[in-house]
Amino acid sequence: MLLPKKVKHRKHHKGRSRGDILASRKTDVSFGSVGLKAMTEGWLTSRQIEATRRVISRHLKRGGKMWIRIFPDKPITFHGNENTMGSGKGAVDHYVAVVRAGTVLFEVDGIETPIAGEALRSASYKLPVKTKVVYRK
């Protein structure tokens, strides 16, 4: 799973997700020929990114190359049940990647376009955001 080696601050604020803000970076397919683009915003955990990566790599069968364009660097804390209030913020439980609508999540190259599209389409079932397959311009 993807985890940051070192973080500046151990615990972050939660923040708010606003669906009306579109991504301004990572919006085009830059490295590969076919990409998987997020249509809605959300948090992607490192487990979800790893599950998606495994589905894509099984479709590639050592034939192509894959790029992961997102990285989970936001720590999410978990306090546990039946704790009294006032005992501080919980320990870091996992990490998520904050994804805005329009962000390209994964890219694939080196295999036929229909197979790459099918690989990304089947991998999108592992993600909690709506996605679509996009092609390089």
TrEMBL record:
Q: Which domain of life is it from?
A: Bacteria
List, alphabetically, the InterPro entries matched.
Ribosomal_uL16, Ribosomal_uL16_bact-type, Ribosomal_uL16_CS, Ribosomal_uL16_dom, Ribosomal_uL16_sf
Alphabetized Gene3D superfamilies for the sequence: Ribosomal protein L10e/L16 (3.90.1170.10)
Per the record, where are the segments of Basic residues compositional bias?
A: 1-16
Gene Ontology terms: biological process: translation
Keywords from the UniProt entry = Ribonucleoprotein, Ribosomal protein, RNA-binding, rRNA-binding, tRNA-binding
Q: What's one GO-annotated cellular component?
A: ribosome
Q: What does this protein do?
A: Binds 23S rRNA and is also seen to make contacts with the A and possibly P site tRNAs.
Q: Cross-referenced HAMAP family, in alphabetical order? A: Ribosomal_uL16 (MF_01342)
The UniProt subunit note reads as follows: Part of the 50S ribosomal subunit.
Name of the protein described by the UniProt record: Large ribosomal subunit protein uL16
Q: Which organism is it from?
A: Candidatus Uhrbacteria bacterium CG10_big_fil_rev_8_21_14_0_10_48_11
